[in-house]
Each structure stands twice: as structure tokens, then as C-alpha cells.
Amino acid sequence: MKMYVGNLSFQTTSQDLQDVFAQHGEVTDVHLPTDRESGRPRGFAFVTMGSKDGMESAIKALDGTDLDGRNIKVNEARPREDRGGGGGGGRGRY
């Protein structure tokens, strides 16, 4: 029941997200990634709801709505794609 929330304002906090999403069901986790160097939020978050109904309600109600002056994007989170490792370009010479 994890959702991706994008286009967030840098002023949006985990508590803000908790409060907004809790209107649609139990929020079990809010993860707001920050930039390693600056410590500022990266503009997106992951919110986990306690039920599928809560998640669907939140997506339907909140996708495209204004939060802290930004129209947020809310959808079901997809698993990370395996990006593979290293380059591996070029061919061997015979």
C-alpha cells in the first residue's frame, strides 16, 4: 500500500504528509528522502497506508491537488527497476 508522492515543495514536512494522508485512512509510514549534500528534501516522498482502500481513496482525492503551493502527483509506488551495474560498453578485440 505504498504510494509515490511527487512534485512536493521543499517546505513540505513528513508531518504535513502524515496529516493530509491520514484523512483517507491509517498512515503507517512516511519517507521523505533528503539530498545527501544539502540535507534538503528531494521533492518527493513515499507514503504507506494501512489498507488498499485507504491508498485508493488517497490517490483519487489527492492526485493533482495543491499542497504548499504545488500540484502534487500521487500514485501507487512501483518496485525499483534493476538498473544494473557498471557500464560494460565496447566490444572485445580479437
Automatic annotation (TrEMBL):
* UniProt biased composition (Basic and acidic residues): 74-84
Q: Where is this region: Disordered?
A: 74-94
Q: Name one Pfam family in it.
A: RRM_1
Compositionally biased tracts (Gly residues): 85-94
Q: Is RNA-binding included in the keywords of this UniProt record?
A: yes
In terms of InterPro entries, this protein maps to: Nucleotide-bd_a/b_plait_sf, RBD_domain_sf, RRM2_NsCP33-like, RRM_dom, SLIRP/GR-RBP-like
Q: Which UniProt keywords apply?
A: RNA-binding
Name it.
RNA recognition motif domain-containing protein
Q: Which organism is it from?
A: Haloferula chungangensis
